[in-house]
Amino acid sequence: MFGKTIDYRLLRLFAHGRISEAEELRRLESAMSAEFVEARFEKWNRRLDNEIPIEPDARYLEVGCCMGDMSLALALRGCKRVTAIDKDPDYIEMAKRCARKMQLEGKVAFEAMNVHDVPEDWEYDIVISHETLEHVERPRDCLRLIDGALKQGRGARIVLGFGPLFHSPFGGHVSGFFKIRIPWIAVLFSEAALMRLRQEFRPTFDDAESFEDMREGLNRMKYSEFLRYVKELGWITERLVVNPQLKRWPGLWRLSNLLTRLPLARDYFAVSVYAIYRRP
User: Fold this and answer.
1) Paired residues of 109 in beta bridges
2) pLDDT tens digit string along 131-179?
3) Is the Cβ–Cβ distance between 127 and 146 less than 8 Å?
4) Distance separating alpha carbons of residues 52 and 50, to the nearest angstrom
């Protein structure tokens, strides 16, 4: 907004200390339980109007599984063939430990793998991705690879939930170390200032100088771009819900639905996207 130095000094007034990223991950792993992953899955499912397909004999692939909570929830629901991948080997090891703790070892196959390295002969009935698409490099290519991993035929489905998107009010993924949530912070303020504050107030595993370089990565895909990528693939929409977290406030929900349909406004108000698609 005012340059990296002034932006830094201004934003520093609103920053506060927080546990390090390593401590946060340890705390999250300690909380992982059957009840925890069930609750997380149910929250995602409610945002998709309880339409996530649960088919015990279907072949599932989760892209960007992090600690594996969604794949573990599928296993708890009786799904027998679940594969989960994440590019970060530390997350995969964590997921395996959580599976052992929940006595689900062997029911989910966890593999450290970038989605761009998925073998061409992999074929799945249902591909899911939760809180990942805003992080992957080259999201357009990622969606094409997801399409390539789907079996041929009308029964194949894609289940997505992701956000906040970069250009939305909280798209910088940095609100955790600010005393107040500053809307559109990633769009309005200097990236260099935000990266400096991130290192100062939230010790991390990296020394990132850009959003893309962060350990978790953060792309700058717009909602309108996502819609275009889906159109290019020819996927048929079964369910598309934008900002479902606002449903508890009917007035805001109606306003959100209006703004996210307007071409000039949608990219700045589409915070989170939840969708189910099928192959034509």
Assistant:
1) 83
2) 999 999 899 999 999 999 998 877 899 999 999 999 999 898 887 788 8
3) yes
4) 6
What are the residues facing 162 on neighbouring strands?
A: 273
User: What domains sit in the chain, N to C, each tagged with a CATH number?
Assistant: 32-167+217-278 (3.40.50.150)
Q: What pTM did the predictor assign?
A: 0.91
- Amino acid in the structure at residue 168: S
